[in-house]
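Supplementary Methods, section 5.1.

A reviewer requested that the exact input to the structure prediction be made available. We therefore reproduce it here, unchanged from the version used in the analyses.
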Amino acid sequence: MFKTVLFPIDQSREAREAADVVTNVVQKYGSRLVLLSVVEEPVTDVPSPDPMKSSDLVSQLLENARSLFSQQGIQCEILEKQGKPAFTICDVADDIGADLIIMGCRGLGLTDEGANDSVTTRVINLSPCPVLIVP
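The structure derived from this sequence is encoded cell-by-cell as follows.
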C-alpha cells in the first residue's frame, strides 16, 4: 500500500515523536524509507543560530536519524535539499513517487506568510500524496 514513505525531519520534538509512527508503517508495509531535511535558504549573509540553516547540522541530523532507523533494522535513503521547506518537501515527494508523507504536527518552521501558516499546513495543501500528521 505504501511502497515509498517520505519522512521530512527537522530538530523538533514532533519530528522525533513521528519517528515511532514511521518505524511502524515502514515495517508493516515493507516500505522504502526516504529521510529528507531541508536547509532553509539564508536571507542574509549573517550566520544564523537556526540549526536548519546550517548544512553541517542538517547533515548530522540526517546521519543520526539514519543510525536510529538502522538500529530498528530499517534501511533508509537520505536527502538533503536547500529551499523553502514546504515546497521542497512536496517537490521531493513528487520526484521520488512517494505514496505517503509522515511528519510531525508542527516542526520548527513557519512559512513566510506568518504564524498562522505552518510548514505542515502548507505540505497538506500542496502534497501530491497522502500526508499522515503525527500529533
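Residues 108-114 have pLDDT under 50 and may be disordered. These observations are discussed further in the main text.
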